[in-house]
Amino acid sequence: MVRTAKSAPYLGNVGEYVSYTCSHCAHFVEEASGPLKTGYVQGGKVSAEVRNAVRDKYDLTAALLARCGGPKRFFGNHEALFANQNAWMEQLQAYDGSAAKPQEQKAALRDIGQKTGLYALMGKRGFTPAQLDACVNDPASMKQILAMTNEAWKTLKISGTPAFTINGTLAGGSSWASLRDALPAPAQ
User: 10 Å Cβ neighbour count for 127?
Assistant: First the structure.
């Protein structure tokens, strides 16, 4: 796996814009990851690239954590965040209703990670708290995620997540069925 010029994790000509706090994105990943990889990417029909379309500070925290460990760990982290979304989103809602939260961005992102179950989830994937702190404080990752987010919402003008591009053109629909219908026949 390599990174494109946009620094998105690359598996390549299908762009998948996701938000980690989006339940529809979690459903898409659950339903489409296997068939997309085995029927299309591995068969050489298409390549797929995950891009961020961050919606809030919670989503940003998860996006930064998905990048922990670099490109080799990204897809495992990505799928784990979505597979466990219900659990950490429940904790996130409790956290969102709590009173005092840090105002400084780096402290706020660490606090979110620590108090919503995101750090615990990533700890099960072998990351230490110090590694996770470094990931949420990584200025290069922040810049890349925010550039993808800007492209999604302001340049492409996606209406929500998940959203897809095929060869750089926004594709209609937000489900595996709509994306699958826009792709060439899968490899046999």
Answer: 20
